[in-house]
Amino acid sequence: MAFPSGRVTLSKISPICCRLLSSPILCSPSCSPIQHVPTPHFSAVARYSSPSSPSPPSSSSGAKMTHDSNRWRPMCLYYTQGKCTMMDDPAHLEKFSHDCSRDLQVNAADVKHKCSQELDFFLVLDLEGKVEILEFPVLIIDAKTLAVIDFFHRFVKPTKMSEQEINKYIEGKYGKFGVDRVWHDTALPFKEVLQQFEAWLTQHHLWGKDLGGCLTRAAFVTCGNWDLKTKVPQQCKVSGIKLPPYFREWINLKDIYLNFYGREATGMISMMRQQGIQLLGSHHLGLDDTKNIARVLQHMLVDGAIMQITARRNPDSQNVDFLFENRIR
Predict the structure, then answer these.
(1) What is the pLDDT of residue 39?
(2) What pTM was estimated for this model as a whole?
(3) CA distance linking residue 272 with residue 279, whole number of Å
(4) Residue 314 and residue 286: Cα distance in Å, rounded?
């Protein structure tokens, strides 16, 4: 495996307790949103499907992933953003899931095969939105146990688009998934999402302004360079804010994959296909893609891959240095 020329210096983080997991998908029409409440102390990711869809078969990734045999139900997307008002409604709880931890569990025996990592936590990120960011999901994976620690998810309202443009944009993007209503009910401006995200990072002791603004013993994991090389800086400029320091470096899973397995995978789908991991949910629904990328990450860690920073932005020139000579271009 080729190693990057750069070095990452990160300080120690205090342990984080594993939390009850949940995952996203559309809630019933009667589940109306309420005013914003703090990020719930639970979360995760899930696949989307209509309530009438049959339960999908278990992942084909073999013994590495374990799954609960309970009936699969679509996840309430209001819940993932702390806005579900029907947690005491038995009919709602029967129809919609508020826990999807089984999709991201790893056998304890397989965890023993992984290599020691320089980082304590991986923040899996997969943004959605070509014009402006529409969805901001981040999943924390513990580097030692491979368990999901917590999940941050927000829909993002564009800053510079008219209501007519937004409606057309959202209908084209999320209408096909059946989640356009929950997007309209819950979407927040990027500035506000970023403020909540920083509070969430602080809650997990992963970041602090007093620490220079960089992540603590953690790094973002993306499927490609687009999210943090291109899209976040563009959105910060549109929103009139300075690019936060914690977005300056990341792990491109495609580059790690290429160097570890010795073969190229151009994206999430090809990585999953090559490793025999079944796709769960809807491709290009950010929550689902984040979960599937996390499953690829877990698979690679169990196989013995070492996760290292693959790209770093120069704070002065803003140019990005790619640290792996052998990389996806």
Answers:
(1) 34
(2) 0.78
(3) 7
(4) 28
Rounded-to-10 torsion of CA 199, 204, 206, 207:
20
Ramachandran region of residue 67, left (φ > 0), alpha (ψ -120 to 50) or beta? beta
128 is annotated as an active-site residue: yes
HSE-CB of 208 using CA atoms within 13 angstroms = 13
The residues with which 135 forms a beta bridge, in sequence order, are 128, 155
Annotated catalytic residue: which of 92, 98, 128, 132?
A: 128
Measure the CA–CA gap between 3 and 326, rounded to whole angstroms: 9
CB contact burial 223-250 (16+ within 10 A = b; e otherwise): bbbebbbebbbebbebbeeebbbbbbbb
pLDDT digits (tens, 9 = 90+) for 9-32: 333 333 333 333 333 334 444 443
Q: Which two tokens stand for residue 40?
A: 């719930």
With CA atoms as reference, report the closest residue to 152 among 125, 176, 177: 125
Q: Is 284 among the residues known to form the active site? A: yes
